[in-house]
Amino acid sequence: MESHEDEEEHPAVLPMKSNREKLKSVVDNTKERLRQIKGQVFHMMDGNNQLVRLRVGTDGKISLERRILSIPSINLSSIVSVPKRVLEAGKDKIQEVRKEAQGRAQRKWRKAVTGDPEKRIRDHMKEVPQVKMIDKLSFTFGVLCICGSEWLALRHADWFPLYYYAIMTMLLVWRFIAYSKDKYQLFMLDFCYFVNLSVILQTAFFPTNINWFKANYILCMGPLMFAIIVWKNSLVFHSLDKLTSFFLHAFPPLTVHLFRWGLIPNPAIQHDDHLAPVEALLLPLGLYLCWQLGYWTITEGVLRSQLADDPDLITSIRYLANDKKNGFRNLCFSLLCWLGLTQPGEELVADSVKTKVTFAVTQLVYTLITIIPTPFLFSSYRLSCVYMVLLYGFGTWNGASYYIEVFAERYRLQFARSCQEGREDGSSVADTDSEEESEEYENALEEVEIDQSSELYKTIVAAIIEEDQALENETLDDDEFDQHNDNPPP
What we know:
Strand order of the largest sheet: 1-2-3
Helix content: 55-70%
Shape: elongated
Order of helices and strands: HHEEEHHHHHHHHHHHHHHHHHH
Low-confidence stretches: 1-14, 444-448, 481-490
Mean pLDDT: 76
Number of helices: 20
Strand content: under 5%
């Protein structure tokens, strides 16, 4: 009994394995693991940074199946550092990444060729050149108009009115079509258009009505021609809009000038005629009031509901009220502030009664001031010629300033952009190379067949998990250290 109890308390010690038995156990385990991976495929990087595919045969031998792709910038360490989500991503994700890379390269090419990353190159090739045909036609038309006007005024002045009628009719029809597209057609109710219509009607159908002629002369040589300075009209040949505005203020004064000094014969107009002070005031003022009443009848009566329903329909008052750089608008605003009807910094409401009345009164004052020199011009041929040359020269000077300053600046910026693009070529090439390498790597990933049961896959995943845990531990340690420093013990 005692011996039996001693055996239970002290069990027999297992015999130690010999070295031969240990070696045999390792060999058996190795054979078993090799038996498990027979027929499986592995991918690895060789010493030349080439991605190769290896297969374990049924006989246990490892054979090189094929070389997949050479990736100079990728090594085994970079593959191990690939995030786990990339390895587990399917082909759909890889294709999406490839499309994004191709899209970036495509947008860069589009921007380089067209200047717009969203514009297709084939669409850009179909567009008209930057210097449009309409600009060339306008430039040619403007130069020929100047030459024709000079020739007719000096050689065949009696033909000039017909020339003026034809040119202005064509330009105003074009302007009405162009302005209607942008809802600017009500601009053509302004005073300058009215004066042009008055000159055409009087010279064509009522050439012997001397009072009407005098009223037209005063309005043309006064407020209409002086508007070249006020509105900064410029003789820019390639812009049909600027050309129309200049001719709108330049042709009527020239027409009445030719009639006044007998270059266009008219028995009702005598060389020694003069303007009395009453005529100089009442005749143009009566014609001005006719326009003003007609303007209010159309805008405040006929088109009142249309203007109220459509705030995008632009009139001259709506335009000027919002143009804070315009001198005429700022003058009206200063007048309102001086009268105490508005406060500095307050916005002008174009459709308010006080704004409309202020603009109407200011324009009337401008008209009365600009008609002051007209009696002297009506009585002196030389003074009239000097006056016209000065104001035409002002419009020509504005056109020259536009060509020299604006065009020269644009020309300089073209070279600045070329130099900037040249400096960016190096970075663009580097970006393209990196995108090509990225695309090659994505192609390699697409060809890789991920076998989750393979030892290579398990090794990579284990390394990633271990690295993630190490980073998390470092982050936790840093947070604890920061918290300890932020809250020191008392």
